[in-house]
Amino acid sequence: MTLAYIPSPSTGVVHLGPIPLRGYAFCIILGVFVAVWLGNKRWIARGGKPGTVADIAVWAVPFGLVGGRLYHVVTDYQLYFGEGRNWVDAFKIWEGGLGIWGAIALGAVGAWIGCRRRGIPLPAWADALAPGIALAQAIGRWGNWFNQELYGRATDVPWALKITDGPNRVAGTYHPTFLYESLWCVGVALLVIWADRRFKLGHGRAFALYVAAYCAGRGWIEYMRVDEAHHVLGLRLNVWTAIVVFVLAVTYFILSARLRPGRETVVEPDRDPRPTEPADGTKAGAKAGAKAEPETEAGAKAAPQPAQDKLKKS
Questions:
Q1: Confidence (pTM)
Q2: Phi and psi for 57 in degrees, rounded to 5?
Q3: Distance between terminal CA atoms of the chain?
Q4: How many other C-beta atoms can be found within 10 angstroms of the C-beta atom of residue 195?
Q5: Which of 85, 225, 246, 296 is deepest in the core (most CB within 10 A)?
């Protein structure tokens, strides 16, 4: 008998009149705001301009949402295209289902577009945003709590998560893997902030550290989950993804440290294509012309008189 447990919400939706407020969507939105807020502070501390992180996030966030949903639908296609399933449900993002791997991959494409438009190096921007992304994931995982999804094996530990009967789930108490991952992501954010201050990480290494640390935790947490998933050689697909991405992140970290040690000195060059004008509004060209005119007159006065004029006077 379980004496203590974490209760699940009776519903994941709160209605304000005709407007539904979904817990999953609220957690995602709150996570984005926290990531942009912290990323902006870190970007300014590195010499960047206020608002740049938000400007680039306008590109990165939509791309990330699309990428996260695509990864989830492709890797769990049986949930939407299997027998008795409705493919329209693939578009119902508010019901849960965002793959972090796809979100980061396609979100990086959007960030690259935004950085390119501003003349900013993508690795520097990613370094500034890395701990904020980890915190956004920590907050976003609570959306799974609202939807009663992505829990682990049955258990009777005091912090077990109580799940009620519903579609594709059986009532009972289970490991709260959403909570494990949320706490792990908070730890990852603190690790990146500490390491960045201690070792002055640059050229994408803070972001690589975040990716590697997250994958290390995601591997064992994913192994505990009991929701339906594809398996390869006895391991869940996401476990293999975490292993591969971990190796790639560590490899990048090591090679980057050897090839480009230190940190960027300039992260956002001050480029203003507009011509500078005097405070009185006079154009520079006009003012220069005005100066040239008196010089011409003075030159004319100083010029020697022709010989004919001298004869007339004599």
A1: 0.81
A2: -65, -25
A3: 132
A4: 17
A5: 225
